[in-house]
Write a structure and sequence with these properties.
The chain has about 120 residues and is an all-alpha fold. The protein contains seven helices and no strands. The protein has two domains: about 35 residues; about 80 residues, no CATH class. It is flat.
Length: about 120
């Protein structure tokens, strides 16, 4: 068991060093490979249960308006009012703020129900 752990630690270290030398950095726009790997990692990190969870709140006008207000206060500064992350802060972050309308964030729609609930509740 001790040898396995040591081998695993060495593998992680060597992978990290390799990624640095291959250009995976936190101060430039990520490569297509790095973006693909990050999206794959996100899919692994978000548990399957979270994808199947249903929003416990009813989708009525009052609840949707409360969610919109909360999003505008807490999320829009980076993700933008439309969720596409085309803000100075969102683009200036490394990694950049995620486009919440992308299919990797849920259903490919501006988050209003299941997609935003899954993303925000993880």
């Amino acid at each position: 068991m001790k040898h396995f752990r040591r081998g695993l630690e060495l593998s992680v270290l060597l992978t990290g060093v390799a990624l640095i030398f291959l250009g995976c950095t936190a101060n430039v726009e990520p490569s297509k490979l790095e973006t693909k790997l990050a999206n794959m990692a996100k899919e692994v990190v978000i548990p399957m249960e979270a994808k199947n969870r249903k929003n416990p709140l009813p989708a009525n006008k009052e609840i949707i308006e409360q969610g919109r207000e909360l999003y505008m206060q807490s999320c829009a500064i980076c993700h933008g009012a439309d969720g596409r992350s085309r803000t100075n802060i969102g683009r200036g972050m490394y990694p950049p703020a995620m486009d919440l309308t992308s299919p990797t964030c849920g259903d490919g729609q501006m988050p209003t129900s299941s997609g935003s609930f899954r993303t925000a509740s993880v």
